[in-house]
Amino acid sequence: MIALLQRVSEAGVAIAGRTTAAIGAGLLVLVGVRPADTEQHAERLVERILGYRVFGDESGRMNRSLTDIGGGLLLVPQFTLAADTRKGSRPGFSTAAAPEVARRLFDHVLATAKIRHPGTLSGVFGADMQVSLINDGPVTIWLES
Is residue 79 flagged as an active site residue? Predict the structure, then answer.
């Protein structure tokens, strides 16, 4: 599984012009699923997202995790993260999981995150979403499990 973490001062998801989820300071995480991914990958990804140290301590060093600061978490499904971009000028998506598999695993990521980090919000699988954010830093990290 793939997670693109973005440390944000705020982020939100809108569908058809209506905000469906919004957070203050925390992480906006775009989540991609590959065909070989499993529930164990999903659980490991959540563990890494919640524990990854991308927030500043009293010295300004990135030594605090989302769990440490109690920040917001906004998970957004994004199959294009699994795109094959090795050749040509158009991405291929044979490296992304089929929609039914991706939905099941994204839902597992979301459910696991909600248990471990209450208040977790999400985008809507398969929806045409407009994602807005103010990237803090900027800090953007690619994680895989």
Answer: yes
